[in-house]
Amino acid sequence: xxxxxxxxxxLRAVFATALFLFSATGPSxxxxxxxxxxxxxxxxAVGGSITEIVYALGEEKRLVARxxxxxxxxxxxxxxxxxxxxxxSPEGVLSVKPTGILALKGSGPRExxxxxxxxxxxxxxxxxxxxxxxxxDKIRIVGKAIGADEKAEKLAEKVDADxxxxxxxxxxxxxxxxxxxxxxxxxxxxxxxxxxxxxxxIIELAGGVNAIQGFAGYRPLADEAIITxxxxxxxxxxxxxxxxxxxxxxxxxxxxxxxxxxxxxKRLVRMGGAFLLGFxxxxxxAVRALAGELYGDxxxx
Length: 301
Prior knowledge:
Pfam families: Peripla_BP_2. This protein is an alpha/beta fold and 301 residues long.
C-alpha cells in the first residue's frame, strides 16, 4: 500500500541515491537516543533497520507506516508506505496520524525533517553506525523509544553474541581477501565504496579488506584505481529487479576489471541490499554469508 503522492522513481534509483546522501539533521525531539515517546501507539518507522528491530522486538502492532527501504520482514509490506527515507514529504508522514516518528539518522530532505520536528509529533532520530556496537545501540534506542527496554536488552544480548560468533569465524585468517563493492555503473564508470560506508563496515566485519581506500563515501572510480585495488571479489547489491546478468556481464567485460584477480576468476557476489547493508538484527547472518563467500571451507575448519 503506497500513500498517494509518492511514485515514479524506482526503488533501485532511490536506493542508489541513498548511499550518496548523508545530510545531517539538527536535534529537536531527538537527543542522544535517550527519549521515550509519550504515546508509542502509532509510530512511523523511517529506515529499514528500524522497522526490522521493531518487528524483532515483537512490537509491530505499534507501527502505522513504514518507508520504502523497510522491506523486511515481508509482513511490513502491509503497512502504508510514506515514501523513500531521503525524500520524505511531511504531508505523507503526518497523513497516517502518528503519535511518534522514529527515523534513522540521515533521513531527509533536511527541509522535510525540519518541518516534522516543528510539529507536535515527537521525532526521535536513531544513529546509524556501521559497526558491531552501533547495532546494539540502535536496538536499545529503538526499544527505549517505544517503551520496550527489557525486550531490547534481551535482543541486544542475543545479537551481540551472534555477532561475536560470526566475527570469530575469520579471526584466524592470515591473508585477508580484498573486496571491491560496486554500487552500480554510471556512464561506463564503476561507482565504488570508500570508507565510512555500510559497505566498508560489512566487509571489515566479514574479515575482508575494502579494496578502495583514500576517500569516504561512494564515488566513480578511475580505471587505474580499480587495477591498483586488486580486488579478489566484487560485491554488489541484489535489489530484486532489473537484468542482473546483463549488468554483471558489462561489469566483468571492463578492461580494468579484467586486470584484477576478481575479474580474471569472475568472482562476483550479489546479496540483498537491506540484508547486506542494513546493520540490524540480521547483520550476523550477513557477516557469515560474506565470510563464506570470501573464505569458503577455510572458516569451517
